[in-house]
Amino acid sequence: MTESTPRPSSLIHTVYGEFVRRLGGWISIADLIALMAELDVDAPAVRSAISRLKKAGTLLQERGGGSGTGYRLSPAMGPVFEEGDRRIFRSLEPAELADGWVVAVFSVPESERAHRHTLRSRLSWLGFGNAAPGVWLAPARVLPDARRLLERLGLDAYVHLFLSAEYAGFTDLRTAVAAWWDFPAIEGQYAAFTDTWRPVLAGRSGAPGPGRDRDSGAGAGADHPGLAPAEAFRDYVPMLTQWRRLPYLDPGLPAQLLPPDWNAVAARAVFTGLHTLLAGPSLRHVEQVTGLVTAAHHRQEP
User: Fold this and answer.
1) Residue 165: its pLDDT value, please?
2) 117: enclosing H helix or E strand
3) pLDDT at 226
């Protein structure tokens, strides 16, 4: 487990995003409590987290026939999880400097300054760096996700987006970039992930290599013959919960602009190895506990 234990709501978010979506989108509260107990989260904490997620519009209460009361993902969460798949499960190789930048310029009236804070936090969450007050930039490939997010949050009226091919300023670009992004903070989170999960990966002798069939979803990859599905689930959910915020904070800057020995490479290798090893048996464990069947559609490569 990590030194900073994930919140129950974050773990539930992971369970829904990685498993429940493939099992029809609904799970009974009894089965969810049983799964969360394996992650050392008690029933009152689960119910409290579910209440907050319901209030936020993430989950909808629904009866499941003979299965009792449960919760389904809100339809509005579909695009959110699809965007998450694109960011979390792709390799996020460094961008090419020649591809250019997307620049976001925003202006918010003082009477609506709450939107200003939301814009800053959301642009930062997408991996944008802050070049000047109201001016943010990221590699050009972030543009589609930025457009979708700003439109979904109703913030597009405050923002102008530009594509720029190259930097033509006066400061060395590498020096400027180091001021626009908080590299030590990003590297600190990558280091914490690697320190926590590299020993877990090393302890799984005979783990398969990092390759996986992305079209076949969470069940891809050969299983380690001695790895019980429940054991895989107990490692996989907190690991994925810790990982899934990192690809957002890291915009995948061109390699020549990154600090020497950029530690994201090592962290990604640990994530890929554990994902390949644990995802399939974890899904089977959820199927065994819930009796639900994997849906016909699978997560597709963006």
Assistant:
1) 72
2) helix 113-125
3) 66
pLDDT tens-digit profile of 52-92?
A: 999 999 999 998 766 688 999 999 888 888 888 888 887 66
Q: Dig out the tokens for 191 from the structure.
A: 């280091």
Q: Are 251 and 209 in contact (CB under 8 A)?
A: no
Long-range contacts of 247-250 (CB under 8 A, 24+ apart): 247/87, 247/88, 247/90, 247/92, 248/87, 248/125, 248/126, 248/127, 249/124, 249/125, 249/127, 249/185, 249/186, 249/189, 250/92, 250/127, 250/186, 250/190
Q: What is the pLDDT of residues 213-254, one digit of tens each?
A: 333 344 444 455 568 999 999 999 999 999 998 988 888 899
Per-residue tokens: 147: 């457009």
Q: Alpha-carbon torsion 157, 159, 164, 169, what sign? A: positive
User: In this predicted structure, what is the pLDDT of residue 139?
Assistant: 93
Residues 6+ positions from 276 with CB-CB distance below 8 Å = 207, 208, 209, 210, 211, 212, 220, 221
Helix (H) or strand (E) holding 166: none
Burial (CB count within 10 angstroms: exposed 0-12, middle 13-18, buried 19+), residue 256? exposed
Q: What is the pTM of this model?
A: 0.84
Q: In 156-187, which positions are buried (b, 16+ CB within 10 angstroms) versus exposed (e)?
A: bebbeeeeeeebeeeeeeeebbbebbebeebb
State both tokens at 167: 């930097």
